[in-house]
Structures are given as structure tokens and as C-alpha cells.
Amino acid sequence: MASYSPKNILITGAAGFIASHVCNRLIRNYPDYKIVVLDKLDYCSNLKNLLPSKSSPNFKFVKGDIGSADLVNFLLITESIDTIMHFAAQTHVDNSFGNSFEFTKNNIYGTHVLLEACKVTGQIRRFIHVSTDEVYGETDEDAVVGNHEASQLLPTNPYSATKAGAEMLVMAYGRSYGLPVITTRGNNVYGPNQFPEKLIPKFILLAMEGKPLPIHGDGSNVRSYLYCEDVAEAFEVILHKGEVGHVYNIGTKKERRVIDVAKDICNIFSTDPETSIKFVENRPFNDQRYFLDDEKLKILGWAEHTTWEEGLKKTMEWYMQNPDWWGDVTGALLPHPRMLMMPGGRHFDGSEESKSASYVSNTSNQSRMVTPIPRSTSSGSPRKPSFKFLIYGRTGWIGGLLGKLCEKQGIPFEYGRGRLEDRSSLLADIQNVKPTHVFNAAGVTGRPNVDWCESHKAETIRTNVAGTITLADVCREHNLLMMNFATGCIFEYDAAHPEGSGIGYTEEDKPNFIGSFYSKTKAMVEELLKEYENVCTLRVRMPISSDLNNPRNFITKISRYNKVVNIPNSMSILDELLPISIEMAKRNLRGIWNFTNPGVVSHNEILEMYKSYINPEFKWVNFTLDEQAKVIVAPRSNNEMDASKLKKEFPELLSIKGSLVKYVFEPNKRI
Does the reported pTM lie above 0.70? Predict the structure, then answer.
């Protein structure tokens, strides 16, 4: 079998886990090869992974996206690339369930761009496409022979489906255009440098912190694990000895249940598995087993060298020595981590960055994992902030409170200067601030109340509809999540949701209240925002805060009215809910959310509390809706919102009455 000798290799995604080990190995073993790395520095990439290679004369780093056809063509030509090892991909299954379009964009479209560039330039002698064992789908539990390279592809999740789709493109370009393609399908890989959204580093870091290890389902799922250096050697063998047009499984016969992996890590840390393991909700679909036949690769001369016990020990020791390699990764350690696309990436510290490698800038947006507020390292030096907020609505009540919360939590933020309906000014804000999240608390509610909107309809549409949509569209262009403060005043009690029934409107229900023009515009823009997958809509109702001097506070309003109606309503306690909105951004939550405390409270119940806690002499008079209608221009919305979705995500969320006592009346108690 003839051996292939490359000259100039392009490795995509080499600041990531597996590819960095392959790159470092090739740099170390083959000083005559020129290695060019193309990586957009995604959330799970880190230039520190390439530290062993950065000072080598045959190493070059280019920051950019494989989806940029111009950049890829430029590199192939100017660097005289003859070999591509294509690792770049979105790979975390949990993320694919909530952000599947990003997987299609990266894994299928990105691969297509590379293949087309190879076809156009006509200079590539090897294209090694890195796929996954998950394209085979689930293996029968009692199977004694693993999937071989000719087995049918039956992917079961969005991640594996995009990898299978990319494989089809690779195969098609091999057959249609004669591209010299080779495909690999590998088992799970573990070892140093791995981003801790993956099982083994996640469990190790949690165990280091004395926290429980979350297991999806019952932990009976079986996986095969290969140590990273063994896998890097496999790619070295395939690069030199692999046959064009062939597929190679990179696997092991040594299988382990997820529960056993957790127990092994508990044993290493001398903790009791009974108390250290926590069973959590399973994925939407979680393949029970992947099992590969790896005989074909063994014929080329590859063999697994590292035992499970040895590899796990090496990995644990590395994370013990490098606990801050990835910075603050609390968001990745959640049972079901979610990814948020946002500008920025990871870099070498300080001046090393400019000295470590050659860079080519690209305007593609990068992505990172949402993480909590950075804490100081053990040495006392602060970490760089992992996110920055751009807030619209500086002069508004909620916008002002958000800024104060950011100051309190140490989150960098700036208020937007542009007007929502002015696209160019929004673009300038994003260019100048470089945010990781955008919060929209701007909007027209009317002064002193929503009746103003009835006589200022054009202005209301301009801000509430056109402005909000413009901001959402600009955010989508820049891969930014927009947290949008909306309203629940788009519903009213009806036959299916009668007053006092406890049946609340859900996030899926269609708005049915059109009594005010303000509510009309809010319902209209909410429907339009459903087309924007980068928006999280928070339906606020009758907001209340502990600041009883604020004229916008619902309690302040009704305590100053001559007469009030007495109707139970869902309401939002901002002191409790606004910090939750920040946490929702960290968790990359999207879609529509009823942003109210569970349950309802009536006007009289609130005023009774006011009398008990604030002013025992306070008195008020009720009047009917018909009587109210005579003194207002537009009818008001009264309804109950179903907050069970929010309560499920944040179990500690208090009921409306409990939250009123804790956050509003107890802090202001005068009696």
C-alpha cells in the first residue's frame, strides 16, 4: 500500500478539542509539513489548545469561518494547500435540539463551501472529512458485531443528521468531480483540552467543586470512549495510509454505561456515588448505544494504546492542573447546556496573541457558551468578562432597573443610543459596544397611561412594531440573542379562561384582547417576532417593584386612584423577575414566555396588604368595569397567565402573593 506524503495541510477547527491534538502531533512529528489552521474561535475553541505548536515555523493560524467562500479559496491558493483535514463542526447534541439551524449552517453548508473550493482550485490531493459514529444511529443492545463502514446511515438527532448530510456531499463530490475524499467516523473522544459541555470533563469539573453529577435519564446508555492521543494517532495513520474513496471507523470495543463513567469518576474523587449522582430529564431522544467495527483501520496499522483507567487518570490530572483553561464555564456544567451565538472568541493572553501565529481576520460572527458572572481566580486576578449587555430603554422603568442590576452583578453594559426605528443607528451601537446580548426594554406605553396611544397611533406603531422588528432583525444579522420585554395585556378573560377558574393563557394561545391600540401593536409585533429564532419574548403584566414611590408601579397607581376595580390578574414582581431575565439570557432561552409570577391577585387583595404593611388608615372605594369605562378612553386587559413554563425552568419562582410579601411589602413595612 503506497504511503501518501502531504506538503501543505489545511486543518479546519484545529483550535477545538480533537483537531488540536491532531495538529500538535503533526507539527511535532513532521517538521517538513506546513500546517495552516482555519478556525473561527467558536465557544468550544481555544487558542491555548495550540500552544505546543504556536512557536513552530511550519505553523500558521488563520481566524475565519469555513462558510466564507472567498476566504477558503484565498487560503487554498495562497498557501498552496494540497491536503484538507476537515474537523470544524458544531458537535454537541444538546445544542442541536435547540439550535438546529446553526448545525445545518456549520456542518452542511460549511462542508459544501470547502468542497466547492476544492473543485474550483483543482489542487487538492486528499480531503479527509471527519464525521461521527452517530450517523449510524442506535445500535441494538444485544449486537455483538459493530456497525461497519458500509452500514446504513440512520441518524436520530439534528447533529448526526447534519453530519450524515455533509457525508453525502463529500461522497457526491468524490464521485461527480473525482475529489480524493476519505471519511472517518469516530467513537466518543476524551482527554485534556476538551470543552466541559461533554460528559467526562463536565463530570470531572463538577466533582472538583463537590457538586452532583447530572445523568440524563437512567444512565443506562452505553458509549465507547477513546483517549485523544490514540485518536490523533489514528488520523496520522489515515492521512498517510488511508485509501481515497474509503470510510474508516475509529473505534474501540471497550464500552461503558454513562452511570459507570460517573461512578468511576466518583471513585477517583473518593465520593459516594449514591449522593454524588443526580438523575435529570433525558434528551428528546438519546441513543442507547453506538458500537463500531474498527477492523478496517487496524489493518492500516492503528491500535488503541491507552486503557480507560490510564486515560481517565491523565484527564483528571490535567483538569486539576488547569481548572481555569476555559475560564468561567458554569453555563456548560448545566445538565442541559445551551449554546448562544455571539461575537467574540478565545485568545492567548496578553501580548502572546500577536506573536503566536499569523492571523487573517474575517468578519464572520463567532459563538460562545453562555456563562455566569466571572469570579476572581484563586490568585486574585479577575477574569475577563464573558458577556456584555446592550440595553435599550434607558429612560424607561425596566431599562433603568436592568442597568442597576448589571452594576450590582458586575456585568458590563451600555445603553443603546440609537432609535429603534433607525437601522443605521442600531448597527452603529452594535459596532461600538460589541455586545454579547441585547435587551429591549424600549417601547411606547403612553403617558400617563395607554390612553395616550389611542391618539398617537403612528408614533406607537413606529416604536412598538417597526422599531422592535428592526432591532430583532439587526440582532439576527449579528447572531445576537434579543431579550424582548413585551406584555401579557393582549388577553382577556373569556369562556375558555373564565375569571377565577385558575385556567391561564399559555404561551401558545392566540391574543384575544384588542380593546386598546397599545395592546393591538403588542400583539402584532409578538406574532411577527415568531419568525425570529434569536428572540426571547417576555410577557410582563402589571409590573410591580419595591419602589413604592415610582408612579409606574402598579401599587403606586392604584393607591392614588379615587376608585379602583377589583379583578384578579396575573402580575410581574420585577425585583424577582428581572434577575431571572438575566439568567434566561445566560441560558440562551428563546421563544415566548409568560413573565409573571404564578397565580393571580386582585386589586383589593393588594390594597389590603398595603393597609397591613404600609398605612393602616388607608381606605379605598371600588367601582365596576362599566363605571371605569366612563373615565378611560381604552378598555383595559384583565386575565390570568399560565406561568408553569417559567416555573419549570426556575422552580424557586414565588407565587404572586408570596413574591409581593417578600420583595415589596416586607422591605417597605412601616407597621
Answer: no
| 518 has pLDDT over 50 | yes
Q: Other CB atoms closer than 10 Å to residue 634's CB: what's the count?
A: 19
Q: What is the SS3 string spanning 435-489?
A: CCEEEECCCCCCCCCCHHHHCCHHHHHHHHHHHHHHHHHHHHHCCCEEEEEEECC
Exposure string over 533-560, b if 16+ CB within 10 A, otherwise e:
ebbbbbbbbbbbbbbbebebbbbbbbbe
Please, which residues have CB within 8 angstroms of residue 551's CB and are 6 or more apart in sequence? 448, 557
Residue 410 burial by CB count (10 A; 0-12/13-18/19+): exposed, middle or buried?
exposed
Grid cell digits, residue 273 = 456515588
| Chain centroid to CA 94 | 10
Mean pLDDT of the chain: 87
Q: Which of 59, 55, 70 is nearest to 37 (CA)?
A: 59
Q: Cite the DSSP H helix spans in 16-109.
A: 17-29, 69-78, 93-98, 100-103
CB-based contact 96:338 (threshold 8 Å)? no
Rounded Cα distance between 21 and 36, Å, is 14
3-state secondary structure 131-168: EEHHHHCCCCCCCCCCECCCCCCCCCCHHHHHHHHHHH
For cell 419595591, name the residue.
546
Angle made by CA atoms 586, 587, 593, in degrees to the nearest 5:
110
User: Could you tell me where the DSSP H helices lie in 530-564?
Assistant: 554-560
For 98-114, the pLDDT digits (tens) are 667 788 888 999 999 99
pLDDT for position 287 = 63
Range 2-13 burial, b when 16+ CB lie within 10 A, else e:
eebebebbbbbb
pLDDT higher than 70, residue 556: yes
Read off φ and ψ for residue 156, nearest 5 degrees.
-120, 0
Q: Which residues have a catalytic role annotated?
A: 133-134, 159
Q: What share of the chain is helix, strand, coil (3-state, %, to 5)?
A: 40, 15, 45
Q: Which strands, in side-by-side order, build the sheet including 591-594?
A: 413-415, 389-392, 437-440, 481-487, 535-540, 591-594
Average of per-residue pLDDT across 148-154: 88
Q: What is the pLDDT of residue 359?
A: 36
Return the sign of the alpha-carbon dihedral for residues 647, 648, 649, 651: positive
Q: How high is the pLDDT of residue 338? A: 58
